[in-house]
Amino acid sequence: MNKFTLFLLLFCVGIQAQETSKKSYSFSLQQAIEHAIQYNYTSINSGRDIEAAKKKKLEATALGLPQINATVDFQNNFVIQKSVVPAEFFGGNPGEFVEVAFGTKQNMNARASLNQLIFDGSYIVALQASKTYLDFYEKSKTKTDLEIKEMIINSYGNVLLSEESIDILKSNIKSVEKTLFETEQTFKNGLTEEENVEQLNIRLTTLKSNLNYSIRLRDIAENMLKINLGIEIDDELVLTDDLKSLTALNLDLALTNPEFNVEQNIDYTLMTNFVDQRNLELKLEKSRYLPSLGASLNYGYNAFGEDFSTFTNADNWLDYSNLGLNLNIPIFSGFGRNARTQQAKIALEQAKTELTETEQRLKLEYLTAKSKFDFDVEQYFSSKQNLTLAERIEKKQNIKFTEGLSSSFEFTEAQRQLYTAQQDYLQAMVNVINSRAKIEKITTKN
């Protein structure tokens, strides 16, 4: 096998590996939402926040459980520290001092200790705070899922809008090409002006340019949807729902207006959790006025000698043990505790005010979203009616133009009016879907 053949074989294998690494997905809107909630990058990290909060709760609980530690210390005093004592202790002259070395060159200590917290007000508050901490991240995950759902609906609708726009532009191009061909033949026979042909050419060029732009927009919208879904950009994606069916579904839902209970809104419950956190911070500062009590049990062995072989002899090891209680009673902190308590009270009142503000803001947000949805529904029916009229006008003008009964300007205006009505109709359908998603996000019970 020569080098060229080997290179060609490796190249083909590489291309095949790239093709097989691509995945293919086919989603309805509901399937896309379910997939994104599980695989969206933000959703994944939000789930990890919950796992981290659970570990944080376990960490707080562990502070009240027995703490056992073992320690081994070794010390080699190659120069032993010396002290001086009166010489007369050893039969010397009064007023003189002699150097004395206390200790041995080799010291080792092995011990185990058990510490148990018996009572501490801050520990009780910490346990409550850990539950609130976990509840916050669980609710944050719910909020993330709602935001992802709305984002997928918007992204899914944008892709469908782009695809519908491409289909309409292709249909318009085909229609203009047919009219242009007929007009060119008429011009060759001397039955129409050259300006009519030129106007149609301008219209055809504009439509082709718009088509190319819409194709690029479709690619961008599809890639954005892939990122929101948590799949690779190179993967294949097929959307099984269409814009008209989704619009019809949301129009049916408009007949049943969901009730709005602000206390069940996820933003409101998150703010309630924030108030609970500030309340616990106040409790924590108050708990610092209470005494704390702890117990400890120690047991160990130590050995001393002039050489290291001392530690190999079990007879040289001396055991010891002790049991202790530690009662800490706070008496006076220079008004520091009182200042921190007052700060916590102020923070709690601020949180309560923010909760009231959130309640009013959410009520306004719901009313605004509902008004926007009602308006978009009206615009949908209006744009649908306008599209029907624009199609009828364009068809009549096309016939008149072909028969020489109207000018190219009148026909061009009819076409322009039709194209605008087509885009307005598509956008109106997307607006209905997005507005409904906004209401569902606000009214969904956490």
Plain-language structure description:
By secondary structure, this protein is α+β, with helices and mostly antiparallel strands. It has 2 domains: 23-63 and 120-290 and 333-443, Outer membrane efflux proteins (OEP) (Up-down Bundle); 66-119 and 293-329, Single Sheet (Outer membrane efflux proteins (OEP)), CATH 2.20.200. The chain has helices at 3-21, 29-39, 41-62, 121-188, 194-229, 243-253, 266-287, 336-402, 408-443; strands at residues 24-27, 67-76, 82-86, 97-101, 106-119, 236-239, 292-305, 318-328. The strands form 3 sheets. It has a 4-stranded antiparallel β-sheet, with no helix packed on it. It has a two-stranded parallel ribbon with strand order 1-6. It is elongated.
Descriptive labels:
alpha+beta, 4-stranded antiparallel beta sheet, 2 domains, Outer membrane efflux proteins (OEP), 446 residues, 65% helix, two-stranded parallel ribbon
Short note summarizing the structure:
This protein has 446 residues and is of the alpha+beta class. The chain is built from nine helices and eight strands. It has helices at 3-21, 29-39, 41-62, 121-188, 194-229, 243-253, 266-287, 336-402, 408-443; strands spanning 24-27, 67-76, 82-86, 97-101, 106-119, 236-239, 292-305, 318-328.
How is the secondary structure organized here?
Layout: H1 3-21, E1 24-27, H2 29-39, H3 41-62, E2 67-76, E3 82-86, E4 97-101, E5 106-119, H4 121-188, H5 194-229, E6 236-239, H6 243-253, H7 266-287, E7 292-305, E8 318-328, H8 336-402, H9 408-443
